[in-house]
Amino acid sequence: MTAERSIDREFEPRLALRKRLGTFFGLLSAAAIVIGLTTLGVLIADVVRDGWHVLSWDFLTSFPSRRPEQAGIRSALVGTLYLLVLVAIIAFPLGVAAALYLEEFAPKNRLTAIIEVNISNLAAVPSIVYGLLGLGVFVRTFMLGRSLIAGALTLSLLVLPIIIIAAREALRAVPPSIREAGLALGASRWQTVRHFVLPAALPGILTGTILALARAIGETAPLITIGALTYVAFTPKSIFDPFTVLPIQIFNWISRPQPAFHERAAGGIIVLLVVLLVFNGLAIFLRARLQRRIRY
Amino acid sequence: MTVTEQAPRYIVQPREPAALQIERLSVWYGRHQAIRDVTFTIPARRITAIIGPSGCGKSTLLRALNRMHDLTPEARVEGSVHWGNIDLYAPSTDPVWVRRHIGMIFQKPNPFPKSIFENVAFGLRINGYRGDVAARVEEALRKAALWDEVKDKLNQSALALSGGQQQRLCIARAVALEPEILLMDEPCSALDPVATMRIEDLMLELADTYTIVIVTHNMQQASRVSHYTAFLLAGEDRTGELIEYAPTRELFLRPRDRRTEDYITGRIG
């Protein structure tokens, strides 16, 4: 053993204890993820077990029916996809333009500060409130009825704050040096934004938008509020036709007494999950691709 | 306006024709005043260095010369900067027009994430250049002493260049617009000594055609490249003031203000 040096006497390192503490908290956080993932895994396994055997081409292409063995999700799936496209068309340009204004053009004063706080608040407003708003404004005042467009406008309001916040984050992440570079060459603000800021922020904006849309297709409450139908035996021919969506169809089947309908609901959930998964996958793919092109 | 008691200032008037006349220029960031009452004249087709310790307002002063402060919402500028008979801060003066004629090179090279060619061509295109863009790009790259290194890879990303090459590309990009004045904000602080030397040589060449104003941390650099030197210093209130302005040789050999002497001999800063 080496001679004890005087410096060691002033410290009490307690190395073993510190290491044990580290191990303990490592295990604790591992337990947290195990609990979360197990719950999710069990839920998915349960749904798949119940609904796997109803999945078939017929299930996707048949309209709902009073006879469970014939009931399918055609109108709900088509309604969901139409709604999705409409919400994207409405909310994406509005959200990006609003974010651009706030980040790149608006003066930083009290008014814009108030607007900012309100947008953050709007993102946290329960979706049922948007449903009531949609009912009052789009269905009644604008007399759009229980139509696809009324649903799309309502959901657009719901996701707009999320898109604005995501787009602003993405714009803020663009280094100021690139703005200065453009402006110092005599580019106007808009030219700088259009040529450099927007392309650099696009991956982030797209990812945020896709995640917001993924949230929109899972929404049920606001659409029930504005009166989306639960039993639709046709696909909408125009944006003014009535419609239904997957979550509502699932909700409808679950509330029936016959167990055969519950299996159909499980099948619907699987389809909805697959659609969501495709969307999130798309978001990751786009982000990775666009980021490779633009790097600082 | 209040007249505070001021220490004697040693500010010479250059013999050369004036490029920029700065008069009682003050800049605030919110409530904090970054520079106070700076008055001096920058000569045309010479290199003027702005030196001083960190936080003395060197960059703030430089950025006031092409209205870059317009981009900082809380910044406020008072006083005037005249370029010939044009008041850069007059309401009728368009800041975009100012920046197109008074170019700027930044501390950290900031090429666009595009090809080398596009980096230089961008300024020409957005300003509506009607001549031969490719020829002008080549000319600018030659002036920036970069052409031979990049002529075979004009379509490659500018971000693949070395730091020194990127900075010369930024200079080429600015020079392509044939500005009257080039403002350089510590252009070599992110570069190694060899790259620094190349940029300094380039500056001396460009000074035949352009008026150059360079902010530098590096007193040797100021003494090597500049014809005139302005020394800024911030007092207790962290507000920078112009202490001394003279031909570089004079300022370094015979500083008239004690504080200048202390700074260039390394006693402060």
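qc> Chain A has a mean pLDDT of 89.
qc> done
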